[in-house]
Amino acid sequence: MTHPIVIGIDAGGTMTDTILVDRDGHFKIGKSATTPKNESEGFIASAEDAADAWGCTLEELFSGVNVVLYSGTGMLNTLLSRTGRKLGLITTKGLEDMVLMGRGLQAWADYSYADRLHAVTHQHPDPLVPRRRTHGVTERIDQFGDIVLPLYEHEARAAAKKLIADKVESICIMTVFSHVNPTHEKRIAEICREEIKAAGVEIGVYTSHEVRPVIREQSRLNSVLIEAYATARGRMQLKSIENASKKYGFKYGVQTLLSFGGLTSINHPRLHETMISGPIGGILGAAYVGKLIGNDSLICSDMGGTSFDMGVITRGQTRIENEPLMDRFKLNVPTLHLDTIGAGAGMILKVDPLTKKVSLGPESAGSDPGPICFARGGTEPTIADCDAILGRLNPDYFLGGKVKLQVEKARAAFKEKCADVLGVGVEEAAEGMIDMLEADANNALRRVISGQGIHPSEFTLLSYGGSGPLHLAGCSKGIGFKDIITFQFAAAFSAFGCTTADFMRRHSVSTQIDVSGKPEAAALTSVGEKVSEVWRDLADAAVAEMLADGHAREKITTTPFLMMRYTGQLEDVEVISPLPVVASAQDMQKIIDEFEQVYAKVNHRVSRYGEAGYSITELGLVATADKVKPVLVKRPLGKSDPASAHKGIRQAYIGGRWHAANLYEMDDLQPGHEVIGPAIIEHPATTLVVHPGDQVFVDEWTLLHYRHS
Amino acid sequence: MLNKPTAPIRERLIESERLMEQTGCYNGITELSLRNDDPLRFETLHTKLRAYCVSAREMARRISASPGVREVGEMVVAIYTPEGDAIALSNGIMVHVHTMSRFIKWMIRNGYEENPGIRDGDIFANNDAFIGTVQVPDVMDVMPIFYDGILVGWAGAVCHELEAGGITPGGDVALAQERFTEGLFVCAEKVGENDELRRDYVIRCERNLRMPIYWVLDEKAKVASCIDMRESVKSLIDEIGVDYWLKVSKEFIEEGRRAQLARTRQLTVPGKYRGHTFYGHVTEGKPGYQPLGDPNWLYNIPIEMEVGLDGKITMDFEGTQPWGYHSMNCTPAGMDGGMFVTLTQHMNFEGLVNDGAWMATELKLPHGTWTNPDNELVATATSWALLLPAYGVFQRLLSRSFVARGFVEEAFVGQVNSPMIEMGGVSQYGTPFGMAHFECAAAGSGALAIKDGLDTAYVGWNPESDMGNIEIWEQNMPMLYIGRSIVPNSGGAGKYRGGCSFESTWLINKTDHLRLVTSEHSSRVFDNAGMCGGYPAPTCQKHRAVRNSNVFELAGQGRPLAHTPGQNPYHSDFEMRFEGEFELVEGPYITAPHKSGDIFSHSYNGGGGYGDVLERDAEKTAWDVENGFLTKEAAEAVFGIVLHEDADGMPLPDFDATARLRKRKRAERLEKAVPVSQWLEKERERVKHADFAPEVRKMYASAMKLSQRFTREFDEFWQVDGKAVFAKDAK
């Protein structure tokens, strides 16, 4: 093996995964516990674990790599634990209570279906800035950007002075429609900086139009507050990662992952854009594998302990979610769209003794106390317990044998709390529970596909995450995917995905461009000119930023996009422009036609309403620059008999009866091997269950293809 | 069997009802055989159906142009049996699950199978409350689901429209006194074929509404979601077979019925519970009202809830008032809706709820009352005005039962109205417009028995409450927010206070014609009570407006503006800061158009309190005062909590002074107290002489005219001849 060139690290809530990749695409995985107080410790420990697997020292590793890529949860933890900075807020006078009122929906968003209805459970999230440090300043700008009430500078100055006296660490500024006309926010910021200077203190000033110049004031407020609240410590953590890397000889700057799927330096000015990055790696990895195997329509699915995340790539396009939730705060950070349902191996199973209704989750046993079979104090049966009871998990090889599963303990508890209440046998009940989980996931996948307007047979399913392969068969059955793929490195696929990202900038501006339902050619031409002009400006800005980061001009490519809707609608559809510039009325019509197509695909053709006209609410541009990426190694197919990976036989309960299932070591499978179910393919970090009659084929990239019988 | 799938649907419906009558079980299903055979498969299928509904609703929300649907989620979708019983539903405005059921059954009973015919791809719409909805803006669309030529179910969706084309803009048309002024009616009409809305129907909408895009795009959104559910159900049938589908879908409902009965047996104590509330509606002297009825209305809403040993809940409205020439009447469909949404919030929230839950309940709606008018020409545009207080009583009765059974954490003081503001005229774009502003969907909730009510994030009709973004609302109306703030003391006082509401203050901008109208105000009587000693939810606020204000002049000089009406009811902040013509309006606001430079304020309602005010925590109260949920004066006068200020001027509790004050307050209570018998005797004198406001006298007289039971109980309790006492007031 040659030397690694990329280190990808994904620090999750419990484990920090490392993947090392060399120029030829060889890779090794390392794992270590995440260390939230000082993430660099877990980072180095995980890197060391991977370096050991590679057979090199940390110094050899870091001095030789070109890219260190880190995606962590530090900032998210700062937010969740409310341990961020002391903030002050200046906003439009009369609206100061918005920090307490929030969006009403924040009192229940992210709840389970049941709790969303069960009103007594609703509660607002704790505000990030207290009302007492929120000051209003008289001003009003309307939706057209016109100043209706001038800014009362004396009020802004008094507010700044008070916040400085209150010893805030950062001042956030958010006024209504500042994304249309930022004059007032800018002036308030200037006044704050003057006062901060006069007081001789160091206080950061954040304005909402700089952090997130997009409509919806509550989301813009949350974005600016979270940026100010949580990223300062996150920035320090990232700096400590970079310092640790440099200590071992790394020569460049550490990179991190943006929620919309690109890499950026850790000096990125809007770090909250990197806070929802963990699961994003999986989508990027999927896109990458898709190119390799020649399919650009993919569903990637990540099943861990608590959730089942699904990302979609439709004909090479990923969908952007513009209003994600973060710790129940509504934000407007563009994020690669993920559909998530509560479905994972850690889900707690309950049977209501009164109604005999079965519920899966939404609670998860997590890793502490974990499922009953972990024997760490868990008392509630989980899906993982069912997997253990049915012999699908190897009690002696969980995490490579680090955890011994107590199957009998799980069995006894499951019998008492579930099977007996339902009045069925233990195995039947356990398999039924797994079937329910897999049916939930299966159904969720079907829904995701049906939203794309493309037949399932065009899609390839990629399955990963610790529990992904374990439940792959049931999750994917009967949907009619073109292909179903999992990986030897399924448990570290997100980290792998991070290493496949390109450097990226996404710039956009809110616009109000209307096109009538039956436009004249001249109107189309004039709209086209406007659009082209905005794209030109955005391209200049994005390219300049990337040049400043040291990328060569010829390596930078730009792709313009539009956010469009029928005039009067409230939700946009993202349209990737089919043309780089709009030079004529025909060109503009092509863009409208493209919108109509994308719209009908997402929302059903019956809902088209071109008579209402079209509105372009945002124009944007994505600039990317290439990065060295791992390549998966292609090896010739060998013989189909997998005997060289065979490691024994275990009794496993599948499809209503016990089978003598062949056991294989996943890492020992070679291109060309075919495994026929019933079989279980094990890896220290994951397990693939092959149902009777189903087949797994190892291709020349060593990808595992699952084929239903 | 008559209800075999190839029989005419009307016969199947009649047979299904006969079987229910005969066996007491839905469709005669006395045994859940499919569930017993394979309980896990059964559950999985039901979960699947729910998922179809949830995602169909999400798709529809993306299509809608209405902030009501997109921003605050005023929509629900469901899947029905061929006979029109709900099998599974999405989240959202649950009220309508059973109203749509009534709509489907109405079409079946009225021979729609023959004419206009029920075919694959047909779209039927309705917003007639006597057929099955609550009010005109609640427009529903249903589509039949056929499989191999057999009707196997229905997909249905309903949105609350922001503009319905009534006599005033919006949909909750307070001014409507008969149905003819409520807006555009679509009465169980076939509005589309072959999965397409008919062009002539769309044109009718476009020409009869002030802001057709809301209605039209919502129609498209509903149709798209119905098609989506239909296709999902059909592919499910591909998998499980049509016979299994027809059987399992009905078993789901019977199971839902049994689950509701079991849940009631688990959470409540059987017996009779009584409660009531009042609602006052002031319209005297307001422009536009025809002299058809009383100028001011006062409604008594007594409710008897009976929980049977089997878990059946019966609600009886005997003794309430007759319908009237106003917009607050309700139809049995609306009453069903209220029941359904309340049950889903408190007992049936696990998400597998369906029409079975409704079948485990019974409503007794006396004919001729506002709950069941004996005249189908009455207006129902603001049914919520009476419906919400009524189901607020239901919430309190249920809560009493939960507390009695020991489920203290489930107790929830009932909901109240959240007055709505609607508008129309010329928009900031210079075009005609009309809209209901739905930020009212985020009022304060009633208190719980273990904590304060939820502030600014609850309404009874949709537990997923929200007020939406200012920047989105402002795109749809020519007014700018200069204030949106919590109203101090708006939650009913108690050991746990009701959730507080907020109020908005707007500066009218870029229009010289803006009509503002509001509805659902009970300004003189509380429209719901507190519990266990808690105070009621406060009555709603009056409207304040300043016409021709000097706001721009003040702003030019950098002088302070008013951003709320403030805390002094006798001299508002508007009067302190602005010059201009001041308006103070009680009840519905129906006035001449406003124009740029005018100021207007409108506030929503808070919830009632729970427990004795003198037991409230002092530190929590200091936090409330610091954050504007309560005034310092109220803390002392109402709660007996003395606060002093820290160095920053922030309130801190003075525990010793509080203890002293509370001791004194308790002593004062004892001093004021008289034996109940004494008090009753005094009140009886008033009753004997009908010594009440005219509205109260009329209220009793009209109830006695309709209800013998009410009269008898009144007479027995007060030892009077009620009819004689109120004879002069009986018209």
User: Which term fits the overall shape of chain B?
Assistant: globular
User: What's the end-to-end separation of chain B, in Å?
Assistant: 53 Å
| Number of helices in the DSSP assignment of chain B | 23
Query: Can you tell me the residue ranges of chain B where pLDDT is under 50 for at least 5 consecutive residues?
Result: none
- Overall structural class of chain B, as computed from helix and strand content, comes to alpha+beta
Total strand segments of chain B: 21
Category from helices, strands and their pairing of chain A: alpha+beta
The biggest beta sheet of chain B reads:
7 strands, antiparallel
Compute the average pLDDT of chain A: 89
Q: How far do the termini of chain A sit from each other?
A: 38 Å
CA-atom Rg of chain A in angstroms: 27 Å
Mean model confidence by pLDDT of chain B: 94
- What is the spatial order of strands in the main beta sheet of chain B? 2-1-5-4-3-6-7
Helical content band of chain A: 25-40%
Oligomer: heterodimer
Question: What kind of sheet is the major sheet of chain A?
Answer: 9 strands, mixed
Structure in words:
- The complex is a heterodimer of chains A (709) and B (731).
- By secondary structure, chain A is of the alpha+beta class.
- Among the domains of chain A are: 116 residues, Nucleotidyltransferase, domain 5, CATH 3.30.420.40; 123 residues, no CATH class; 66 residues, no CATH class.
- Helices cover 32% and strands 26% of the residues of chain A.
- Chain A has 17 helices and 35 strands.
- In chain A, strands 13, 14, 15, 20, 23, 24, 31, 34 and 35 form a nine-stranded mixed beta sheet that branches. In chain A, strands 3-2-1-4 form a four-stranded mixed beta sheet, sandwiched between helices. In chain A, strands 6-5-9-10 form a four-stranded parallel beta sheet, with helices on both faces.
- The longest helix of chain A has 31 residues.
- Chain A is globular and about 80 Å long.
- The two termini of chain A are 38 Å apart.
- With 731 residues, chain B is α+β, with helices and mostly antiparallel strands.
- Chain B folds into four domains: 250 residues, no CATH class; 199 residues, no CATH class; 60 residues, no CATH class; 54 residues, no CATH class.
- Chain B contains 23 helices and 21 strands.
- In chain B, strand 9 and strand 10 form a beta hairpin.
- Chain B is globular, with a radius of gyration of 26 Å.
- Chains A and B meet through helix 4, helix 5, helix 9 and helix 13 of A and helix 3, strand 7, helix 9, helix 10 and helix 11 of B.
